[in-house]
Structures are given as C-alpha cells and as structure tokens.
Amino acid sequence: MLRSNRIDPRVDKRLSPFIGVGGAFPTMNPHLFIDTADLVFSGEYESYIDELLLFCSNISPDAQGSKGFSWADADRMMGPFISHKGKIKGDTGTPSPDTLKDPNYSHRITPHTTFSNTFLIEITRGCRFRCRFCTVPSLYGNLRSFTKESLFKAFDLGLSKTKQIGFVSALTTQHPDLKELIHYVNEREGKVSFSSLRIEEIDDEFLELIKANGQNILTIAPEVASQELKKKVRKSIKIARIFDLVDRSLTLRFKKFKFYFMIGFEEEEEKDLDAIIDLISHVREIALKRAKETRYMPEIILSINQFIPKLKTPLHGDPFIDQKIIKRKMAYLGKRLLPLGNIKINGDDYRENYIQWRLSHGDAELAKRIIDWVGDGFDSKKIYHTLSKRESIHPTAERL
Predict the structure, then answer these.
(1) Positive or negative, the Cα torsion across 193, 195, 200, 201?
(2) CA 388 to CA 384: how far, in whole Å?
C-alpha cells in the first residue's frame, strides 16, 4: 500500500508522512514494525488516547518530533508503550484499564466487506478463560464488558444506518447482559450476528434467540477432542455438552453445524485424530436419529486448522509441524469421515500458516528482509518460498 502511493516503507529513508501503528499485532510483536512505522503503540489505547492524539496532531513535516513536543515528551507521556525510530521501548503493552467506557464500532457501513452492511460493535474485551494457544489473555487481560447503557446508545446509532448489528467479542456469551442486548436490537427491528459463543452458556432461550436472528449455522469450537490434548491447550468442553447442544439445535431446525478443530501438535498421535472422528461420527448419529422426525439432514462442516505457536502464548515455543505431516493427518481424517455422508472438511493454507508463524516470532531483521522481498505486492507463495529457504533468519521463539 505504501509503495503503491510512492511512499518509502523504510522509516530511515522517509521524511514524510508520519506513520503510526497500533493494535493486536503490533502489541504482540512490535519488532516487525519499528523499521516501517515512526511510532508503534503497544497495548490498549484508551488510557493514553488524549496524549497520543495531542502528540500526533502536532507532528512536524520532517517527522522528527512535533511542534512544542519531542520524542522525549512522547516517552514521558506514554511511558514504555511506544517505540520509535528503530528503538523498542517495551513490548509488554499498556496495562488494561479496569473499566471500559465508550464501545468501538463501525463508522462506515458498506456492502463491500466480509460483514456486508453490518454495524460491528465491540461488546466485551479480554477473556475469563485461559486457553494456552490463544493470544487474547496476554494482549487484553481479564474479561471486561461495556455497559449496556453505552451499548444501547451505540445500537441506536447503528440501527439508524442498517438493521444488521454484529457483536464483536473474544467470547460473546461472556457479556452479563447479553440477552437484554439482543432483545434491545430485536425490539427495534434489527438482527444480531455473533462472533464467538461458548457452548456451556447456550441455554434453550439463547438458542432460540440465535435462530430468531436468522442464524441457521451453529458454530462449535472444541479445538481438540482427546483428553490429553484438552489438558495441553487448556480448553476442555465436555463431549456430552456438545451432543446435547446438537440435539437441542436440531429441534429448532438448524441447517448446518460447523466444528473447529486444530491439528499439528508435537504430541499428537493417531488416537487424538480418532477422538475427532468418534465425536463427529456420534454427532452424525444424533442428526440421523432426529432426521426421522424433522425429515431433513443437516450438513456437518469441519474447519480443520493447523496449530500455529504464537508469541505471547504459553505454547509459543512449540514446533511448527512440517507440511507433509499435516497432509497425512488431513488425509487420515478425510478417509474416515467423508464416506459417512453429509460431512464437509475445509483445511487452511499451509503457506499462510507458515508465514503467520514466522511473522509472529520474527524480529526487526526479518521485517527488513520482507520489505525487500515484497516489492509492489504481497505474494504469499513468493514470501513462503523465500522464508522457507532462508533458514538463517530463525523465529526468536524464546522472546516473549
């Protein structure tokens, strides 16, 4: 994007414009951005937004500081949470504020996005669970919820533009007033879509609300199925709960069930894959039994993704499994599940997974190389082959 606008992506070669970055990825690994951005902000911005805007609004054309301010002033105002001019001040991120005030939401509604004509709004931040593969706890801390009053106000704004409201959250079901929020939107002729649900918290009333809001696909994310891997990733959803939810959902005529699983753990054995097969086979048996009453058979979709060890997670030092092994595991699952019928398996792109892994653990040297390799566009195939052949640039897995 920078090169297409004739802007040099290298901070030491550019006088203007001033470029600042922030968000989840720069918080997880600011090292990748210090040679491109003039300023990298790590963590949640709310506690420092006034100082940050004051500083950035007065940036001088040479991007060396701002009118009446200097980088020393920025260091003083925002402490270790900014990095600039190739220097990492700290990569722990800002402390998470105890309370959240005004929710973040879409300022532009357009049909030209994945979430077409949808007013997206953040209803919670952080998570009370501690899944060991997930970056959310380390990036955003404990669960915090926006007040229902602040959300109602934002809903009114969103409903004046569209009737589709999308709840954004690491886990939507964690909001203490979730049902009240849904009813508020529905009573004003709006519909709600949900980003992520925890099945233990889906009772019959909530299941009916999901269906009433036009959702015919129920998403379930066990991630793993065997007891050994549940302990490893620290996400233990009881199998009986899954079967119960599927059975209750079928009475409401949900058309599809989508299951998310991860494969590619170092300790993973054939029996761990067999546990996935057993789980899905039993789900299909439940669906067949219900089909005699409902006279339809739902589709069961498996989204099987490779486990990617990411920085700032307890499993960051685990190995990234070779492509040949992943292909064998996918073939094993497909051979045993697809013949059952009404089952579809989707995999992900190994090249993109590899790039994610390398970027997650990469340092400033890797970032410099990528700037040179990318050229005028991001070609995942080209980047993958370049990265996989240059083993001298190893991920720094030991750095948190």
Answers:
(1) negative
(2) 6
What is the separation of C-alpha 24 from the centre of its chain, rounded to a whole number of angstroms? 9
CA distance 139 to 96: 9
Per-residue pLDDT tens over the stretch 151-198: 999 999 999 999 999 999 998 999 999 999 999 999 999 999 987 788
Residue 77: predicted pLDDT: 56
Residue 132 or 9, more confident: 132
Rg (CA), the chain: 23
Q: What CATH fold (topology level) applies to the domain 216-348?
A: Transcription Regulator spoIIAA (3.30.750)
pTM for the structure as a whole: 0.86
CATH topology of domain 99-214: Transcription Regulator spoIIAA (3.30.750)
Return the structure tokens found at 132: 């060991």
In one-letter notation, the amino acid at residue 256 is: K
User: Pairing relation of β-strands 39-41 and 82-84?
Assistant: antiparallel
| Domain spans, the chain | 3-89, 99-214, 216-348, 358-399
Coil/strand/helix, residue 375:
coil
